[in-house]
Structures
1.
Amino acid sequence: MRKSTNKPALIPKMYCNLFGHDYQVTKKVTYHVKEYTCCHCKKQLTTNSNGHLIELTPKFKEINAILERIYASRTERTKRKIMSSPAY
Ligand SMILES: [Zn+2]
């Protein structure tokens, strides 16, 4: 008897077409901008400057990397400011 290799009936992309993408936050770039990945088809999205979700293209990955660096240095400065200011 031969074992038949049954492939799953639903390929991830089809699953997403039927049930919608299941996005999970994979990266927090700034307070407003996040990167999302669909756990089924691995499609990636990001938030653009208007707050809309758009496809995460290499160009946007680059922008996000820059944003992240700016954001990190800014929050670092804010943290120091809070620590040096008198308590409420
Ligand atoms: Zn998907």
2.
Amino acid sequence: MSLNRRQFLILAGTAGGAGLAFLAHQALTAGSRSPSPVVATSPESPSLAETTQVVKTAIAPKGLFAPVRGDVRIVVISDLNSAYGSTDYEAEVHQAIAMIPDWQPDIVLAGGDMVAGQSPSLSTAEIQAMWAGFDRYIAAPLRQAKLPFGFTIGNHDASGAVGLQGGFLFANERDLAAAYWNDPRHDPRLPFVDRAKFPFYYTFQQQDIFYLVWDASTSQIPPDQLAWAERALASATAQGAKMRIAIGHLPLYAVAVGRDSAGEVLANAEQLGAMLEKYKVHTYISGHHHAYFPGHRGKLELLHTSALGSGPRPLLNSSLPPYKTLTVIDVDLGSELTLYTTYNMQTLQVVDHKTLPRLIVGPTGRVLRLDIQESDLTAAEQTLTYTPS
Ligand SMILES: [Zn+2]
């Protein structure tokens, strides 16, 4: 089907917004290449005659499946690093960074592990060389594309692990990460609300979405930081935004083989999840597990990213082979709905969510796939228990 923009507008007038939105959604979920452009009406517009049409276009790098752009488009990448001390990245990272501008996102988010530290043998010069490599291959190209970069610190960037004496075990790595990020030449172009503890924990707001980033580089978020997070989420700024998104390196619950133990997930997940839900956080985005799983627990959506760099892992409760991912989130601010288009960055195909497990049961709790509700679970699924990987 090949229609020009005018024909699409005529089609919009006759078929109505709902039909076209459905069409667009069908194109998106089918996983096939969609026609471009696609026109949809905004949810508020009852008819073409009364209101202006909102034109939404399917956009992606050439040759890839193109999702229809939302009011806000977010590209999410995570776990970029290679072996300890590495100053370069695997091919998929280079390819993704080159492609990102062609999705025309409003912002790029990263789930942490941007460099490969957390080894006591790395010298200051070696750690600085890693951040220089990160800047050269990742941050600088995104700055040149004028893309804001929101990120959370991972255990390999600047671990928050604390020793018996109460001090940071990787204090030097934390100092060097802070020095890199606070250098004005490395400005991530974020509209900060609170940057007092940047780059470890901070908030920013962009296009009516409030973002909270916390330091989940270890399983324990300190009480003073949690109190800060609660104040930030309760603030008039956060509550006045159309949507709230939280980002941290460790997830609330385990989803990946080899990451299903204490220390690899946040402690007190129930309490943290309840706090995020209380303040109407739409989605918590995490890295560290190196396995893609779009999930939810209650009303809180949980986007578990795979690694874009080395070492993708298999999911628990699944026989799928591991793969590297990049996720495009298209946000509809009116309905507060998000639509994920996740690419397997080794094949450049869109991940079909139906091939993923309907639920994942970890040692501290279970996560349902985004499209599955508790009432959808079979008797066997309801009683499914955790099996160590
Ligand atoms: Zn990690």
3.
Amino acid sequence: MENVNSDENLNAMLESLKIQFEDKVKLMTNSLNQSGNIKRDIKEVIIQGLSDVKQLFDQQKKVFYNAIKTQSNVKSYATVTSQSAHQHLPHHNNAHNKAKQKNVIVIKQMAEQKLNPEQLKKKIKQRINPISMKIGIQDVRPISGDGLLIECPNQKECETLKDHINKEFKTLSASVPIKKFPRVIITDIEEDIESDSLIRTIEEQNPKINEILRNKNNSITYKFFIKSRTANRKHVVLEVSPAIYEVLVNEQKVNIGWLRCNVRKFVSVTRCFKCLGFNHTAKNEERCLKRQFCSLCSGEHKHNECQSQANHKTCINCVKFNERLRNPRLKVNTNHGALDPNCPCLQYQLNLIESKTDYGG
Ligand SMILES: [Zn+2]
Ligand SMILES: [Zn+2]
Ligand SMILES: [Zn+2]
């Protein structure tokens, strides 16, 4: 329980720091508001600057927490690792390599008349009793197509809940999604290594991995290469079985040829560079909105043609999310660029991928 106490102390420390910081910001904002001598636009810029600093502070706090949690071996739920397969991972995410296993079931409605997520939740609650089933419910959230996603502590409890729901409701279909193996990125490997010789090299030069691979349930699969900014180097993304994943992200290094390369977890969401939506590209006629949106201000133009002020960012995905919401209390903040790693819509997509990934454990 030592970790909990140190976390509490840390929390208290950061909270007091935050309060002091916020007081300062408030003081500055008030004096700016009272002074009539400063031009309004300058005032606005300063106020925006202060609010940015405050936001930054909150972000740093999160990063700090995750780093501490990983160090103290309390498994933390990994957040952002990357925004798209074509963007490089931010460095601070090294601390987020360990992921907590997510176990979920997906519920789809088969009836013509679909209930909204709240009604659906209510309907299930009326006939399913997790207490008598001795299962824990960690999260219930709506998913696309008027479905629900329910998270339980482990796979067995997911199976129990799934069977009960399928037995109780003829109009619902519950399933435990098949999980994919996790992905890792190995950065700055030698450029002339080909995909097939790469996997053989990893196997031969890394004894621990070699041993795990003798068990036929384990595997390493090549996915794709990514350009590196370093000359004569490239990055590679691999899909690996949970046991291999564990070794790679724990050691954070792997021997390949003459180099000892860095490894980290890789989670990416496909993002359309036209409409900025997720899980499709501009070539996908059906899913794409077929309109060019700006990743800075959400206007209908390319980001490099953007005329809006740097401090007036709007995220098109979060705007669209809010428009679709039935419950206004769940509205998200839209005042960031669409490529911001902390965008709530991006976070949601990354969480969804995490919940479909088999980390073992
Ligand atoms: Zn699109
Ligand atoms: Zn713009
Ligand atoms: Zn957003």
4.
Amino acid sequence: MSTFQDYVDTFDNESGYLNWAAFGPLSPSVREEVFADADLLGNGRPSSLSLVWERVGQAQEVVAELLGGDADDVTLQPSSTHGLMHALYGLSGAVIASTAEFPSVSLTLERASTASDRALTPRWITPDDGRVTPDAVAEALDDEVTALAVSHVDFRTGYRVDLAALREAIGPDRLLIVDAVQSFGVIDVDYSAADVVVGHGYKWLRAGRGSAFAWFSPRARERISPCSPGSPGPRPPACSWTSSPRPRHRPGRTRSAARTPSRRVASRSGCATCATPASPRSRSASPSTSTPCSRSPTATASR
Ligand SMILES: Cc1ncc(COP(=O)(O)O)c(C=O)c1O
């Protein structure tokens, strides 16, 4: 049976290392598993590849256990910023966020707004001390607000928001999108107030880069249109692996004429990039929460 001392002994890096909030040196077990998986991937046997592939399900289970959620609601991501992109590029309406947020929240929100032709707009708040309190959020609320995006633990100050109080402030219908990079795996948290939680294992979990995730509650999945089907994910009928998206600028067309229509327009007419017709949900959902088709991975590419 392993003891606390066994665990302490796994901290075999140089003593005095304190920069865990930036990067957690990989634990011995992670290093062993990474090398073993690299060997399996190197031999190319189908059985080896499936063994490594099984890691996906295992990782989903572990993340779900730490989150107190369901493994089916966990997606694995290259980074937590990717997870935030999936949430924010699939939303419309106004999203409250602090100007003091880590750029993974603030810059992604800004870029998602531009890419959506302002169907999504940031509702910036600049609270005292950068603290996202329920009062600071309540002041910024109006009918256009569809979500709050917030770091659970602030990367500069270590301030920890009260997720349950923020949920109470925004009410039951808006989405609470939580960047848990600075808290995941190091403090016990009740994430049940959140609709989206993103995190990464390269800090406190000592799991290395590329071990990120995004968890979407069933309600979040109803409201957020997927940005990308992912490599082994469900394939929308109109986006086959063999068909490429249409070029953005065709010869003889002006730049403005060739632009992908705004996502608001796309929601009414279908997706211009992958030619997917408008879904019944996007036709019927309320404008403040619905988002047009963004099924093609390029639908959200920078303009
Ligand atoms: C609060 C916060 N969010 C996001 C990130 C970036 O995470 P990732 O590298 O997974 O995109 C960091 C990195 O320090 C962070 O502190």
